[in-house]
Design brief:
315 residues; alpha/beta; 9-stranded mixed sheet; disordered C terminus
Length: 315
């Protein structure tokens, strides 16, 4: 038998939690995890749109890319708990709008598509449509807006967040992301509105944090804000989560969300530069640096020795 992968870094979390990072291909790490040992996976893989990553070349043929997608999703399905969730963030570009939908189809043989969430990155709201209760004094345009030079395509202001589960029947804590009813009279009319809040629905406005310099403040070409995985974890149900995984850790947005919520995390990336930044960001997000031995001993049980002679897969 070969030895287990050596962590790139282990970061003590608060409330006896841990964050563990591996510089490895995701398939190599998946093979060393026990079946049904991960409760939630939140990730954003390379989109195959020619993005300039540090070590990964994002220019596979469509066939090879979708075959690779099916392979890693199958590996994820093996380690996902029966009531688990895979939140898969995928974007596209106006001239190639099928990318995200093709990725969802590649995952279809292995997991059920339970929800489609739209991550809204920029939105315009006119004052009249918002209504008087919103209190707007002018039309509003908020979020990250990246213009394009085209007379054929609309600006792309959203990305997909596909919610996959093993059977399509995973219970969610829908009101963990609840929003107040704008018309409070609904609270009296609808029994489900007794707490004064409703389900947020499948459109999430999550803007990027403002940065001064991209190379210093966000040195990765395709990140998502930590609030996005945090909302995924809250929606799944914080009390039902033991361990979270991100097989494409990047700058560690999912790890940061786990650090804030006090949840164990396992992440992998092939790029050591990104991982180093992820570790730094995770440490910054942690308030308590004490690790409890009982929790660490339990977490170690999700790993199994890899079979001899296995070769790491390539992204």
């Amino acid at each position: 038998m070969s030895v287990l992968l050596t962590p790139f870094a282990e970061v003590p979390g608060r409330s006896a939690t841990f964050l563990r990072f591996y510089q490895a291909d995701c398939l190599e790490l998946f093979r060393q995890l026990r079946p049904q040992s991960i409760d939630v996976i939140v990730t954003s893989p390379p989109y195959n749109l020619g993005i300039e990553y540090g070590r990964y070349h994002d220019t596979l043929s469509r066939t090879d890319y979708l075959e690779w997608t099916a392979t890693w999703v199958a590996a994820a399905a093996r380690v996902l708990a029966p009531e688990g969730s895979l939140f898969l963030n995928v974007g596209a570009k106006p001239s190639d709008p099928w990318t995200a939908l093709d990725v969802a189809q590649a995952a279809r043989p292995h997991l059920r598509l339970q929800n489609i969430i739209h991550w809204i990155k920029s939105i315009a709201i006119d004052r009249k449509s918002a209504g008087a209760a919103a209190g707007l004094t002018r039309d509003l345009a908020v979020g990250h807006y990246k213009p394009i030079n085209s007379d054929r395509f609309l600006n792309d202001c959203h990305e997909f967040l596909f919610h996959f589960t093993p059977q399509g029947a995973t219970s969610l804590d829908r009101l963990a992301l609840g929003v107040p009813y704008q018309d409070q009279s609904n609270v009296g009319r609808w029994r489900a509105a007794a707490d004064g809040i409703r389900c947020r629905g499948n459109t999430w406005f999550v803007p990027y944090e403002t940065i001064q310099r991209r190379d210093r403040d966000r040195p990765h070409p395709a990140t998502f804000p930590a609030k996005l995985p945090e909302q995924c974890l809250r929606l799944h149900g914080r009390s039902r989560i033991r361990i979270v995984m991100d097989p494409f850790a990047g700058l560690g947005s999912t790890a940061i969300a786990c650090a804030k919520l006090g949840i164990d995390f396992i992440g992998a990336d092939i790029d050591g530069t990104y991982l180093a930044e992820a570790v730094t960001r995770a440490r910054t997000a942690i308030l308590d640096d004490a690790i409890g031995g009982k929790r660490v001993a339990r977490v170690a049980q999700v790993f199994k020795p890899a079979s001899a002679g296995q070769k790491p897969a390539r992204r």
